[in-house]
Write a structure and sequence with these properties.
16 helices; 3 domains; Udp-n-acetylmuramoylalanyl-d-glutamate--2,6- Diaminopimelate Ligase, Chain: A, domain 1; 19 strands; six-stranded mixed β-sheet; alpha/beta; UDP-N-acetylmuramoyl-L-alanine:D-glutamate ligase; binds adenosine-5'-triphosphate; Protein-Tyrosine Phosphatase, Chain A; six-stranded parallel β-sheet; EC 6.3.2.10; about 425 residues; ligase; ATP binding; cell cycle; binds magnesium ion
Length: about 425
Amino acid sequence: MTTKQLHQEFLAGSGICTDTRNIVENCFFIALKGANFNGNTFADEAVKKGAYRVVIDDEAFKNEKTILVKDTLTALQELAAFHRKHLKLPILSLTGSNGKTTTKELINAVLSKKYKTIATQGNLNNHIGVPLTLLSMTSETEMGIVEMGANHLHEIENLCQIAQPDYGYITNFGKAHLEGFGSLEGVVKGKSELYTHLKDHDKTVFVNGAETKQLELTKTMNRVVFNETIIQLMDASNEVKVKFKNTEIQSKLVGLYNFNNIAAAIAIGDYFNVPEEQIKTAIEGYIPQNNRSQRLEKAGHKILLDAYNANPTSMMAALENFKQAEGNRKILILGDMFEMGSEAEKEHQHIVDFLEQNPFGKAYLVGSNFNKTKTKASHIKTFESFDDFKKQFKAKDFKNCFFLIKGSRGMALERVLNLL
Ligand code: ATP
Ligand code: MG
């Protein structure tokens, strides 16, 4: 079956599905394979649950609704690329080391005030998520917003081939996924694949003027630069407050780094003619989710819960922010930063050195990487595992404190909340 024929079958159904646990009636089901599952084995179940067609790549599982292809993942990607070419809508693509999802959600909140938008759901930003996002766009959609994640070279290039973005934005170049990229230069190269794609296709890029490396890399491109002369930071001691033209905007996002994310959403909204008042409503109404920079209160404590993710750049951003935040009795509970490869030891020690030089509170550092660091400071304590930490952490020792909780996803530091 050609991609064109596959696309016709796809259009005749309603929506795309890859998981029988959340099938929708009449959907076009693609049976993907993962490390621990083989979607082909769900072909019958998918039909029973109402799938209109089921794309498989193992003949052994065929039934009256299946379409056999050589490789289902390739079929998904080719179908998405084909679908995208037939969508007459601008697509804005975002990548970067930190803040992609937050910025994507903010941009979507802003643009959806004026347009029918479809944006990446949650964090579905990889070689499967990007095609699924594109296939969820229809002829009714007026604008697409696609998050692209990468942990090695050529990933963004491949995702751009599929999504064919008209606009792009890179949140930042930071020390994330060093294992796959090798170094910060590797990160810059990897993320810049978005620039290369946009430039080759004569498309437009949004640039945060505070990012000098980005300014340099986009010099010869069609670009829209935004900076503090257009969007001003008014306050970041609590939730970030900004001023855009004559409008003050009070977000519900904590952390100075969120200023950049908000500024991008404002600049992009303004570029696409969303009225100032609606930009304000959109940003003010956005509440962060999934343990991303949430401000909580529990048992008399103030808590900054940022347990969604961590890497050296976002960790330092969070520490700088916490240092400046208003509050007394500051306590840090930090977890290991994953995917650091050979840089792990150095990067964790760097955080410890920073904490030695900036002793703004007690610091509990959890995980085998932090446990390997060296410190003589009495306010810093390291633990090999969360269980070790849990054994020694006594909630009754703390009264009316201000906690910053941050670590990589795998550390699941939101568990600290149960201890308080
Ligand atoms: P992922 O790689 O998991 O997709 P992401 O790039 O989508 O991550 P977010 O989920 O938006 O990023 O934010 C994750 C964390 O990154 C936040 O909780 C915060 O600690 C940090 N962060 C967010 N924005 C920035 C930024 N502009 N600069 C530095 N750190 C940031
Ligand atoms: Mg994300």
